[in-house]
Amino acid sequence: MGTGARRTRRWVLRGGVTATAVGATALQVPAASAAGTNAREPAVYTTEHWKAREPAEPVTVHDHQPTYIVVHHTVEPNNSADTSRGSAFDVSRAIQNFHMDGRGWIDTGQQFTASKGGYLTEGRHRSLEVVRGGRRHVHGTNVAEHNHEVVGIECEGDYRDEDVPEPLWDALSDLVTYIADRYDIAPELIKGHRDFSSTQCPGDVLYARLDELRQEVGDRLGKPVGNRPEWPLLRQGDQGEDVRTAQHLLRARGARDVQPHGIFDSATRDAVADLAREHGTLDRSCCGSAHADEPGMLGADLWPRLVTGRRSTVEWKDHLTRLAPRSR
Ligand SMILES: [Zn+2]
């Protein structure tokens, strides 16, 4: 109840601010939609608002809906404590420049960005218009091998240790709720980048809060939140039965230096890095960020290459989750 009341107040406030600002500078403030209740369209600044560069090629729009909504954190570039709208626009431009010039992509990788101050911006061109339509999907570049099926949202900041600022959280919740409603995406299909790749993105703190996000979105849309275990992300320093299981599996693949003692040590890290190299994913991590993960994390893209056919994928995920429940 408390959350509902807070949200209603915030929407009234935001509506008032928007109405005033539209009168003053019509082009500068996107109007939040008046339709609907809990899934109304939040104010999203389009590429035109923040003066994005034109994409190097026309963006691809698929004739199908996406399956997942994926949360990232930016880490770099241009991560600052500034919570102004101007800073949100600066961050959007810095990310686009980095993705186009640094990574060689046609445009910003993610479809949307949420700033620390709670400003939402469109990332890849046309993303807002296409989500609004609810039937098609703008192909982004933010989750390797899954870009045909994910809508990615970059959260400005580094959430490995720090908690998410409240304005960002609220904006993220508004946007995810809206996208989930437009595409009828079940709350349990709201994921973190690490649910697809061996990366720490979106950071342990934000990742641990995704259950809360799924619940919030489920409550707002009146939908139940299903349980969907994922592959654990294991890395140096971790301990537990899931680590021991990984070590047995690495040894079975020929990594005889790895001892099955349940501690993710440097020998385990090296064996995992070898596995990633073999599969061409060693340098992948979160390419949307200028920050590189340390290599040798065992995550969602590597587990399927390691496990045996003794169990199905779902059974393996359940098994590992039961061995060592990890909320990060
Ligand atoms: Zn990411």
UniProtKB/TrEMBL annotation:
GO terms for biological process: peptidoglycan catabolic process. The keyword Metal-binding does not apply. GO terms for molecular function: N-acetylmuramoyl-L-alanine amidase activity; zinc ion binding. CDD domains: PGRP. SMART domains: Ami_2 (SM00644), PGRP (SM00701). It comes from Haloechinothrix alba. Keywords: Signal. Residues 1-34 form the signal peptide. Pfam families: Amidase_2 (PF01510). InterPro entries: Amidase/PGRP_sf, Amidase_domain, PGBD-like_sf, PGBDSf, PGRP, PGRP_domain_met/bac, TAT_signal. Residues 54-203 form the N-acetylmuramoyl-L-alanine amidase domain. Belongs to the N-acetylmuramoyl-L-alanine amidase 2 family. PROSITE patterns: TAT. Residues 42-197 form the Peptidoglycan recognition protein family domain. This is N-acetylmuramoyl-L-alanine amidase.
